[in-house]
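User: I'm designing a mutation panel for choloylglycine hydrolase and want to avoid disrupting the core. Could you give me a predicted structure to guide residue selection? Please restate the sequence first so the numbering is unambiguous.

Assistant: Good idea. Sequence first, for numbering, then the predicted structure tokens:
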Amino acid sequence: MCTSILYNAGDHYFGRNLDLEVSFGQEVVVTPRNYQFNFRRVPSMGHHYAIIGMALVKDNYPLYFDGANEEGLGMAGLNFDGPAHYFPLEEGKDNVSPFELIPYILGQCKNVAEARELLKKLNLVNINFSDQLQLSPLHWLIADRSGKSIVVESTVTGLHVYDNPVNVLTNNPEFPGQLTNLANYQGISPTTPPNQLAPDVNLAAYSRGLGSHMLPGGMDSASRFVKEVFTLHHAPTGKNELENVTNYFHCLHAVEQQEGLDEVVPGKFEATIYSDGINLSTGTFYYTTYQNNQINAVQLHHTDLNRQELALFPLQTEQVLHFQN
């Protein structure tokens, strides 16, 4: 399960939590402009926009969980088990496998509008990367420097592209259902609510934060969606990059999953393996891991973007303590 957001605060910060019970050995990967993407059913791309993001590299191919390109377009794939459906090859369509979708979009689109046009011709086909690495059921959040985002879902009824007015995505149910569910929580507020239960009775406000008393706090995707929408839409805007990056990670960490709270099979628990975010204007990629909550950074434009080989940055997973005496 996962959570992805777009935080608009001067610049625009895009990224996600990856919540799983296993780690795949992912690392920060920069794909330069001249790395050749070989796709299964559409023409190869020998030259494209540079991409930075979190990926598993297999057979020298970056399998991106999420990332953004040098033009400021970001994209993340999140678990969508159940509703997700991929199709056979269809003549007249751009037949792209889901594992290729992030580089296919980020490699040639500058913004959400261009991505939306490309998606009109797209057919997500059921082609695995290999027998050992089969497709995951996914849907995607795509965002850019306009401060807007869209959701892409492939179900049995076809490929759907939805405007995302809240700039948040988790997992099930399908995105329109997530938006509908928000109406149940319209009364949630950061302020202490007036006494509308019994206006003629003096009810003592026994605690701060009573406006959020009914805010969901579970590990499930519907609860995380509601809580993250509330958190993100009340997040302050910082005065500089450091404050904005700090605010951004507080938003993601508000719905992170701790070990021991979400048992997926007996004895195995899902947890937030990493949280990441990229400033879509500067190309700076930030991340934390479950073991190391110090914010680490990799700068896209400090890498040679005209090379052909991938640039790999292993995750810093050991906790860093700052001793003051």
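For picking mutation sites, this is relevant: The chain has a mean pLDDT of 96. The chain has one domain: 2-313.
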